[in-house]
Amino acid sequence: MNRVARFVRHKLIGDLDGNAYVSVLFEPMWAVFGGMIFFYQPLYMKNLGLTEVQMGFLNSLAAALAVITSFVAGPITDRLGRRRTTLIFDLICWSGAMLVWAISQNFWYFLVAVVFNSFNKVSFTSWTCLSIEDTPEDKRVTFFSLIMIINLASGIFAPIAGLLVGKVGVVYAMRLIYGLGFISMTLMFLGRNKLTKETKIGLELMKKHSDISLKEKIKDYKDAMIFFFTNKITFIVFLIMLLTYLQNSFLYFQAVYLKEALGIKESLTSIIPGLSAFVNLVVYFSAMKALTKEGEAKSLFLGLLLNSIGVFIFLFVKPKFYILLAVSTIFMAAGNIITVTFRETLWSNVIGEEERAKIFSAGQGIISLVSIPAGYIAGYLYDVKAIYPFVISFVLYALSFYLSTIVLKINNSKEGI
Predict the structure, then answer these.
(1) Domains present along the chain, CATH in parentheses
(2) Which residues contact 12 (CB under 8 A, 6 or more apart)?
(3) How do residues 216-272 score in pLDDT, each as one tens digit?
(4) Looking at residues 298-326, what average pLDDT do you find?
(5) Which segments cross the bilayer (predicted)?
């Protein structure tokens, strides 16, 4: 048993310790169901009578609520502590939302679920701080790459969801998946909370924030924001974060597009996340170590290039011409695991230790603010012409790729000094 534990820790989890190790260990309990629900959710909504415009409105509402929850995430995390904040708000935003989704009947149920789920901005900020603050910088890329591979590789379970959909239909299949997801995630949050401990800087900030006045808290936040907007590399990396998060609103309708525009059966659309998961695993085990040696800037550049090519190819996929769809999926999957891993690592490393929670939450707030109209616009564009949201997605990736060349130049100039 000890030999198995040592193999898991040293070979599979890259010698991570403490909170980072625990977070990686529990992540599959979220990822297995998270991958299934997000791919099939648009089809679930359509089968319950929602229109593309209503779905777009819900996405925009989620972004609007996330603006509020994002900006309060930093102060809440610093005051309550990373560990306690993560438990409380994960139970609200995921356990609560999964339960509502499982019993949804119409638009109003999804509206309630959006309100619950909007608090994920708080738990995301606190969980990130909890997981990486006591982790050395050189091991953070290992942590983010493992979290990414677990979440992306969970798509390998999507064909199981496809079989369920084919057997009992989208609605009953999704109700079962949401219900099981509620149980799995709730057990995960409770177990992870028991095995993690508050970070050193978290303890310091809890003590600091229990003693300072509201005026001092506002000044503290203001100082963090000055750092955010005046540090060139931090701001450019944030813009890449913004654009790559924003394009998710436009790729949201992919499952619906596969069915309605390309004529793929609902039960067979799960092949796409299944193929993506396979590509993610291949990239992780064959290339991630070499990419880590190349550095975050170069790897982010490569990931965004692959993403851009993948979405561009997707624009030319026609019904029954599925080879092009497979090629597009391969490029997008490879690009996605590289982009997200090194984007998150770079973002974590270019912000200050004490400013982390506040800048994380402010960054998420700005992203949510800009995303407010994106969901509605994506739904409206899909209604006008189904391909339009994916054109916008390509443009956003192309802009991100251009910004990554600037980050690469800044990084190279620093190395040359």
Answers:
(1) 15-416 (1.20.1250.20)
(2) none
(3) 666 666 766 676 677 788 889 989 999 998 888 888 788 788 888 888 876 677 778
(4) 92
(5) 20-41, 53-73, 85-103, 109-130, 142-164, 170-190, 224-247, 267-287, 299-317, 323-342, 362-381, 387-408
